[in-house]
Design a protein that fits this description.
Keywords: NAD, Oxidoreductase. Pfam families: NAD_binding_11, NAD_binding_2. Belongs to the HIBADH-related family. The structure is a single chain. The protein is α/β, with parallel strands linked by helices. It is 51% helix and 12% strand. The protein contains 13 helices and 8 strands. The strands form 2 sheets. The chain has a 5-stranded parallel sheet with strand order 2-1-3-4-5, sandwiched between helices. A 3-stranded mixed sheet has the order 6-7-8.
Amino acid sequence: MKGPTVGVVGLGPMGAPVAGHLARAGFPLQVWNRTRQKAEAFGDRAVAHPGDLRAEIVLSALPDVDQFDEIAPDPVIRDWAGHGTTHVVVLSTTSREKAGRLAERLGGFGVTVVDAPMSGGDAGARAGTLSLMVGATPKAYRHVEPVLRSFAATVEHMGPPGAGTVAKLCNQVIVAATLLSVAEALDLARRAGLHGEQLVRVLQGGLAASAVLEAKAAKILQREYGLGGSAANQVKDLRYAVALADELGARLPQSRRTGEVFAELLGRGLGGEDHAAVYEVLSPGGGGEPPPG
């Protein structure tokens, strides 16, 4: 297929698969990454500097708006706009406030910001089965929708700019609480001498079944926390959710406590590990034997 030229900045566990799906879908593609090697894997689609992008739609798969602001200050946005960039799509989880500030800054150059945070983790990114929650005007949504559907199975227009960000924070509230519950259950099972894999099988056959259990139980059972979604990002997202709750008068009691437990991971130097490492907070001294499997 042919379509608008798409630029992807940030080729981490999520951004690289997204760029791969775009290329396979036939979109003209350009990519940039701070670590040059990751961009060079895309051959002549790689550019040396963010300002070199010549793309109508730029997707940011960076961790947050802060990193986007670093690599795309006003002079870069001015260059993009001068070379035909009309939309920037933020795929990362951020706060409604930061999404709004970015939209205001880029709007000054005639560039429209769409917030479309991703859910589904690195496995969903590789499989092209991500869920995207989109905040945009109807016109902007129509413009970027074909691009988004090339790497996501579920694309929902949640409402005006900022609505996608709020939906993702709701998603993160559920993910964090569920993951902590899975870790607590497997810790309890280990202490009682249960067979961990057997317990997971029976849980998956009942009401306790969840995508979180399916995706993260093996990491906990093996105590191997290769990066999917980082603990540091989980803490960041919960802080954004609590800040939004404070703004709106929501209590969020469970999320506040969950955030405190995840924050312990950062104190242990595990912020760069997969958020399933929350199990290490619950196990004795961060050690002990893994659940029998």
